[in-house]
Amino acid sequence: MERLSDIGTIKKILSKHGFSFSKSLGQNFLINPDVCPKMAKMSGAGEGVGVIEVGAGIGVLTAELAKIADKVVSIEVDSRLLPVLDETLSDFDNVKIVNDDILKINLHELIKNEFANMKVVVCANLPYYITSPVIMRLLEEKLPIESITVMVQKEAADRICAKVGTRNCGAVTVSVNYYAETQKLFKVSAGSFIPAPKVDSAVIKLDIRKNPPIDVKNEKLFFSVVKSAFAQRRKTVINSISNSMGIDKNKITKFFEDSEISVNARAEQLSLTNFAEIANFLSED
Predict the structure, then answer these.
(1) Predicted TM-score (pTM) of this structure
(2) What are the DSSP E strand ranges found in the chain?
(3) Could you give all domains of the chain from N- to C-terminal order, each with its CATH number?
(4) Residue 196's pLDDT is what?
């Protein structure tokens, strides 16, 4: 079906199926005709590649991915969109819509069953309210995927793609950088969507690392340290970790002094190596 990004076509199709946008699901459908082809091309989709899409919407991005990838499996939680997608994606025989929740579905099983002998990438226009949970689940599952290309709120893109050790860095920055190399691809204005959100978006790409850039003895403890360090951003790392994890402040202070990490450092000032050193020290107990 042509003109899927045309606002008139979209309204006609949605009206035909009695569909109304759900605020609780963060539904904002793309109407900018330039965004999805560009996003699909930059995602790494192509010959010999299978794509997992999170949320099909009415299939604008899905269609662009299907044009260049061997197969697209789109995980769509809203069952009301299934008849819409049957119509909008009827020209493609390499698309499968799975009516499920990305935060609950067995992704390892899905990849094994749907993408045999293919490279796999993820490409999606993510609802703002589940951006971090979805990205972190895709990374923490240690899936056999090459990359994750997603459209997110611009502020989230800035935070995720910030350099560790800079002011805009947060817990999600450190966590994502453990698993992947990040890059911002391009900005997308609020007017590119229906209904238009109140903020601009950006497309980012996470290239999955084969191995973490740091040596961590206990991953669970490492991520607890990261989360705790940023839990009270205005406090020093020593105070924040001591308060959040119930660890003796003097013990952490001595480690900082011995490691030549400033005792007055705040979380955004630490490097990935610093976080690993702290976690590895605490894992010795």
Answers:
(1) 0.93
(2) 29-30, 49-54, 71-75, 95-98, 119-125, 147-153, 180-188, 193-194, 201-208
(3) 7-208 (3.40.50.150), 219-282 (1.10.8.100)
(4) 86
